[in-house]
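Colleagues,

For the teaching module next term, I've prepared a clean inverse folding example: a structure given as tokens, and then the sequence designed for it. I'd like students to try predicting residues themselves before seeing the answer, so please don't circulate the second half yet.
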């Protein structure tokens, strides 16, 4: 096999970025089994392993990194070639708001491709909690916002994002009572849902850490000082996702929408919104 299929290379890139067959499958809109089969077939054709699989994550090998570099460049050239013919005059500026916990799944997959395909469009990203991005839409500071559905903000449904309890495998703090939790600031839907779930099950808890920053919550979890309710798309591979098996109540999914401001009726905004909806739905 001397031919490299660009769709399979896209799977290699997605798997390297997400370190998870499930998340890579979401990124390329295929099933995890289909991604696994294609990667395995490519490895057999090359005669070398590209990834090392374990029960918890997937790590790329040295040969995989070499192919990954070529794959990124080849995929970027495909995007550029398409854009040069289909939308050669696209230019302007788009300001988009994204909360921390969605940024890790949205920015690499969508904004990176968009910038390559439309190099004359300037992208500005504002990272804040969903509750703070709503007012920025109303006053036209933002063109688009990829957020948890917020009262008073109309938006097109994108997906239901699972929220999971997240902990460190090094220290089982989820066995402690009162349960130490790290949560986003007041106004967070995930925070409200988590507290309601604990109260329904009569599980005593203490607010160990509160922050608007995903990094802050992840740091507390990594240190084994608390568990946190996080959007599954934002959970680092080295942390564990907890369930009822660990004595924790299930958490409601959050509804993710793409909202637009009154001034966003411009071609660059339209095309970026189109790409977000196409790649993130499901």
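(Answer key — instructors only)
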């Amino acid at each position: 096999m001397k031919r490299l299929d660009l769709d399979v290379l896209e799977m290699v890139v997605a798997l390297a970025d997400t370190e998870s067959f499930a998340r890579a499958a979401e990124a390329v809109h295929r099933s995890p089994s289909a991604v696994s089969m294609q990667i395995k077939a490519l490895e057999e054709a090359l005669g070398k392993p590209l990834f090392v699989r374990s029960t918890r994550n997937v790590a790329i090998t040295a040969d995989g990194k070499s192919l990954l570099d070529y794959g990124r460049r080849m995929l970027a050239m495909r995007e550029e070639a398409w854009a040069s013919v289909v939308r050669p005059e696209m230019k302007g500026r788009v300001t988009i708001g994204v909360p921390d916990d969605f940024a890790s799944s949205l920015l690499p997959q969508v904004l990176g491709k968009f910038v390559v395909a439309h190099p004359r469009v300037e992208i500005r990203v504002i990272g804040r909690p969903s509750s703070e991005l709503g007012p920025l839409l109303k006053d036209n500071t933002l063109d688009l916002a990829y957020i948890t559905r917020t009262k008073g903000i109309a938006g097109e449904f994108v997906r239901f994002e699972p929220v999971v309890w997240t902990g460190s495998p090094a220290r089982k703090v989820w066995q402690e009572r009162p349960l130490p939790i790290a949560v986003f600031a007041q106004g967070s839907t995930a925070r409200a849902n988590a507290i309601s779930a604990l109260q329904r099950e009569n599980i005593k808890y203490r607010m160990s850490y509160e922050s608007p920053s995903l990094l802050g919550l992840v740091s507390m979890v990594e240190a084994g000082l608390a568990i946190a309710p996080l959007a599954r798309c934002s959970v680092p591979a080295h942390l564990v996702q907890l369930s009822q098996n660990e004595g924790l109540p299930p958490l409601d999914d959050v509804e993710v929408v793409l909202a637009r401001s009154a001034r966003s009726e411009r071609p660059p905004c339209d095309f970026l919104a189109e790409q977000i909806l196409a790649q993130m739905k499901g």
